């Protein structure tokens, strides 16, 4: 029997059974879920695209599948199940040649077995270190999903569209709620609707950040980090395309810039500014104008919203409360390393409960805190090899439709890494790191398409055969 007919029969039987056991509304929701699961099993790419859409719109919405987990991570696990099933049936291409970036990431994942065991034995906590470790590994695995499912350029473009659609929906929701409530706490009813966990603690945190814009990413700094990751991609994708794709990309870029100001994330502001300056120095068209437009938008928002004036007046001040906390974190960090030289593992996030230690707002030092010095060095090796594979050629960069996804994803990963100097989110924050590694995998695929053959030729023939500085059009 054809698989399509079998799926239709299974859905029909499931729908009939659910109508007998549940209310019509719940039965309809359940059968939609069953149909989605079966569709992903049949088409694994659909699972990755749905992840990109929902992870950018409502990243921490939860579902109870015997254990409570986020919808985003459930989709990743289901997609991996579909990939393994299709691999058994030999319906997916076998990728035998793994690049150095993938090999070093695998080394990092294997190395974390050591801090995981150390943390299990040395940290006293009620949470499950095993579950947290496996979830972290699942989030890192989006790079390998990208390499398996996005081999064709049209599939990579579909992924970018889903990322931008989800981001646009998130921005429209967040800015709309903030305009109506003028407080981060206005997001609390929305997060309740999305079935977020720990709502009481979440509402307390949103009330404490009332002058800054809330979003489904919960913390304004996390919102800023995601903007740093995705805005360069939206900007390049919008400029290089026409029609609805241009409208989608530029809408995300403009609304994202406004959201960045409203959530007042210093790290994201600085990182995006530095990346835009780098792009303007490489002669990427319109980046200079975008810097001027961003400055004009900032002035307009500051003039029209007094709380933003107060926030910006102290945001880069040494007396800023957030700055003082970060200074204390760096001052206390050597004590944390001395107390846990092999890392604290995965039972808890820094700081360790019951100690007088503090956490650390730095991407690389957070790797040291959680996995020891070896974990940080392996992460540096991964990003170094990524940069060697995907860096642009010397000289001006001409933005075209052919290289827009490569340039936007490259700049986005760069901005995320620069923001790591100020925040730690792209080290162990679930779902956020899944999007980071997904974008890094997307960038690897585009770079190998654009540069792979030429750089392989250069290695074989020596420096005499220098390729053109411009990406292929």
UniProtKB/TrEMBL annotation:
Record flagged with keyword Transmembrane: yes
Membrane topology: Multi-pass membrane protein
Record's keyword terms, sorted: Membrane, Transmembrane, Transmembrane helix
Primary location class: membrane
Location of this chain's protein in the cell: Membrane
Transmembrane regions listed in the UniProt entry: 45-67, 74-92, 104-121, 133-151, 157-179, 222-240, 252-278, 290-308, 363-384, 428-445
GO cellular component annotations of the record: membrane
Database matches in InterPro entries: O-antigen_ligase-rel_domated, WaaL-like
Short name of one Pfam family: Wzy_C
Annotated ranges, domain O-antigen ligase-related: 252-380
Name assigned to this protein: O-antigen ligase-related domain-containing protein
Source organism per UniProt: Pseudomonas panipatensis
């Amino acid at each position: 029997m054809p698989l399509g007919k079998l799926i239709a029969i299974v859905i029909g039987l499931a729908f009939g059974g659910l109508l007998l056991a549940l209310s019509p509304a719940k039965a309809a929701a359940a059968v939609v879920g069953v149909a989605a699961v079966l569709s992903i099993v049949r088409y694994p790419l659909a699972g990755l695209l749905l992840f990109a859409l929902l992870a950018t719109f409502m990243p921490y919405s939860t579902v109870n599948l015997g254990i409570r987990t986020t919808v985003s991570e459930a989709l990743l696990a289901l997609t991996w199940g579909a990939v393994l099933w299709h691999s058994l049936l030999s319906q997916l291409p076998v990728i035998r040649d793994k690049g150095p970036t993938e090999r070093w990431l695998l080394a990092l994942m294997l190395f974390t077995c050591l801090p995981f065991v150390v943390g299990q034995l040395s940290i006293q906590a009620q949470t499950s270190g095993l579950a947290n470790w496996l979830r972290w590994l699942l989030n890192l695995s989006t790079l390998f999903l990208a390499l398996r499912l996005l081999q064709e350029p049209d599939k990579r473009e579909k992924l970018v569209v889903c990322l931008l659609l989800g981001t646009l929906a998130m921005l429209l929701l967040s800015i709309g709620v903030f305009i109506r409530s003028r407080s981060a706490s206005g997001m609390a009813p929305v997060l309740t609707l999305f079935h977020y966990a720990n709502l009481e603690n979440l509402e307390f945190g949103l009330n404490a950040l009332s002058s800054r814009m809330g979003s489904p990413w919960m913390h304004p700094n996390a919102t800023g980090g995601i903007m740093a990751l995705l805005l360069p991609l939206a900007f390049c994708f919008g400029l290089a395309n026409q029609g609805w794709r241009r409208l989608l990309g530029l809408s995300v870029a403009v609304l994202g810039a406004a959201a960045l100001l409203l959530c007042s994330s210093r790290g994201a502001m600085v990182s995006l500014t530095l990346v835009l300056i780098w792009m303007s120095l490489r002669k990427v068209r319109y980046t200079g104008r975008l810097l001027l437009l961003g400055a004009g938008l900032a002035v307009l928002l500051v003039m029209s919203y007094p709380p933003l004036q107060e926030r910006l007046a102290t945001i880069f001040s040494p007396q800023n409360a957030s700055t003082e906390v970060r200074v204390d974190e760096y001052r206390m960090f050597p004590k944390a390393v001395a107390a846990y030289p092999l890392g604290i593992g995965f039972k808890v996030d820094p700081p360790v409960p019951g100690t007088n230690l503090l956490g650390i707002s730095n991407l690389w030092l957070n790797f040291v805190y959680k996995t020891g010095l070896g974990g940080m060095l392996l992460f540096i090796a991964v990003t170094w090899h990524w940069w060697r594979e995907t860096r642009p050629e010397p000289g001006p960069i001409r933005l075209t439709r052919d290289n827009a996804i490569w340039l936007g994803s490259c700049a986005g990963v760069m901005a995320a890494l620069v923001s790591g100097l100020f925040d730690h989110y792209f080290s162990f924050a679930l779902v956020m790191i899944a999007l980071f590694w997904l974008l890094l995998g997307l960038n690897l695929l585009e770079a190998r398409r654009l540069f792979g053959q030429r750089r392989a030729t250069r290695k074989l023939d020596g420096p005499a055969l220098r390729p053109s500085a411009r990406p292929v059009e």
